[in-house]
């Protein structure tokens, strides 16, 4: 059986279910390989595994409707997983290996420091070997410099960067008149340093009456006991903690805050999964906030169908962390390849510039545009708060924890857009 012999209804049904068609129904042409370079083992393996699941599912959804349409016929996508073990040096070695295989599409996101190194290496490679260039698709390295002073023609970011996320969080913080004291804590690398610095600026502009009672950075991925940090936070009298921490550095922080009895609200980038809700328990109800492009309780039939398809594909509650932006990234890559009528990196990069995603494969629930001037995706953001699951507003929990998130505020793309200082060098 070939893709053309399947009915359109059958293909759509398979795609909606998040399933690939039978192997004999796959396009027979050579696959288009995309290399995922991510920490799939080590301190942040839980975050890497979540990424791999989301991207694998996105690939399956594209393939389920026939693959990527090119003049010579449809071609499937193929995800090549490369474990960097959380090491930038290993990630650079894996980039070289992917380029040696002539893989033109490289994906990475967990760690802005690693992303910076990969962008620099890819810029040099593409200038040196134009016959085997590649582009870098970034789904979660959110240091704003990557689409500002460090911007590159070969790099595209599909996550909202730190300033966009902070703009949303501090808008909510501005309106929370119960908060008079805030503690800033983050991981000690470029991203964490930027979040603390920019959060201080935004809070001063929006709520000059708020006192910053702590501003602290800790080693990334090496702290096993956050009790000393949590004790300082409690002693400071902070009514809110703002953090960009992710992975185990977030889970261990919120667990320590619970253990010392802190009742401070948590304004987080990533507090809606990877063990954080279960770690904080009932103490997080009404007090743990997160910002993201989407969450399972945004409401509406399209969102429900999308989430149901993901859970059908990954029924284990421990695997319940779905990212709409990763679906958008793979969909936009497929669309750009079709638009360019080529898999050549420069042609696909030009096709991505200014490309809009209409949300069709997500039931219209997420619309976004890749800004051409800096390759930063412009998309809506949602600030949500943790609640006990099972209510009309919070029908779904997170990772089987019994806790889910309720929308506090939805901000459209224009509301969180930030100016860019990008001065991009474009290849001829």
Mean pLDDT reading: 92
User: What order do the SSEs take from the amino end to the carboxyl end, as H and E?
Assistant: HEHEHEHEEHEHEHEHEHEHHHEEEEEH
CATH topology of the largest domain: Rossmann fold
At the first level of CATH, what is the class of the largest domain?
Alpha Beta
> Order of strands across the widest beta sheet?
7-6-8-9-10-14-15
Helix segment count?
A: 13
N- and C-termini, Cα separation:
43 Å
Could you give a short account of the major beta sheet?
7 strands, mixed
Say how many strands there are.
Answer: 15
Principal-axis shape: globular
Q: Round the Cα radius of gyration to an integer and report it.
A: 21 Å
Q: Which class of secondary structure composition applies to the elements?
A: alpha/beta
Q: Detail the poorly predicted runs.
A: 1-20, 22-27
Kindly give the count of domains: 2
CATH architecture of the largest domain: 3-Layer(aba) Sandwich
Question: Could you tell me the strand content as a percent range?
Answer: 15-25%
CATH 4th-level superfamily of the largest domain? Response regulator
Please write out the topology.
Layout: H1 8-16, E1 32-38, H2 45-64, E2 77-83, H3 88-100, E3 105-108, H4 112-128, E4 135-138, E5 155-157, H5 162-175, E6 181-187, H6 190-206, E7 211-218, H7 227-236, E8 240-243, H8 248-259, E9 265-268, H9 276-280, E10 288-292, H10 301-313, H11 324-340, H12 345-352, E11 356-357, E12 368-371, E13 376-378, E14 381-388, E15 403-411, H13 413-416
């Amino acid at each position: 059986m070939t893709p053309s012999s399947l009915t359109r209804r059958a293909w759509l049904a398979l795609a909606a279910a998040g399933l690939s068609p039978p192997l004999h129904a796959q396009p027979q042409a050579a696959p288009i390989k995309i290399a995922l370079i991510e920490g799939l083992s080590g301190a942040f393996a839980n975050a890497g595994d979540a990424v791999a699941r989301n991207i694998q599912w996105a690939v399956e959804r594209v393939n389920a409707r026939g693959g990527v349409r090119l003049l010579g016929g449809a071609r499937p996508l193929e995800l090549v997983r490369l474990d960097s073990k959380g090491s930038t040096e290993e990630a650079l070695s894996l980039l070289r290996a992917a380029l040696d295989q002539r893989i033109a599409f490289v994906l990475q996101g967990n760690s802005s420091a690693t992303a910076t190194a990969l962008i620099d290496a890819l810029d040099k490679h593409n200038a040196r070997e134009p016959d085997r260039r590649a582009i870098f698709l970034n789904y979660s390295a959110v240091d704003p410099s990557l689409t500002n002073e460090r911007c590159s023609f070969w790099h595209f970011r599909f996550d909202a960067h730190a300033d966009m996320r902070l703009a949303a969080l501090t808008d909510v913080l501005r309106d929370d008149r119960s908060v008079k004291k805030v503690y800033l804590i983050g991981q000690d690398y470029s991203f964490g340093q930027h979040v603390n610095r920019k959060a201080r600026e935004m809070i001063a502009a929006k709520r000059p009456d708020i006192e910053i009672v702590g501003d602290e950075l800790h080693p990334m991925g090496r702290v096993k006991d956050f009790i000393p940090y949590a004790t300082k936070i409690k002693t400071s009298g902070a009514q809110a903690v703002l953090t960009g921490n992710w992975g185990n550095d977030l889970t261990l922080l919120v667990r320590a805050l619970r253990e010392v009895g802190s009742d401070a609200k948590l304004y987080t980038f990533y507090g809606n999964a990877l063990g954080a809700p279960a770690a904080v328990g009932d103490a997080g109800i009404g007090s743990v906030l997160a910002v993201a492009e989407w969450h399972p309780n945004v409401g509406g039939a399209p969102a429900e169908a999308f989430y149901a398809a993901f859970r059908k594909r990954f029924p284990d509650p421990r695997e319940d962390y779905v990212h709409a932006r990763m679906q958008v990234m793979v969909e936009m890559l497929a669309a750009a390849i079709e638009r360019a009528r080529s898999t050549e990196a420069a042609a696909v990069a030009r096709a991505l510039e200014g490309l809009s995603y209409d949300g069709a494969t997500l039931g219209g629930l997420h619309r976004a545009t890749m800004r051409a001037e800096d390759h930063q995706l412009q998309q809506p953001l949602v600030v949500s708060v943790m609640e006990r699951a099972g209510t009309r507003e919070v029908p779904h929990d997170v990772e089987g924890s019994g806790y889910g998130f309720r929308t506090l505020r939805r901000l459209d793309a224009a509301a969180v857009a930030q100016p860019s200082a990008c001065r991009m060098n474009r290849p001829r």
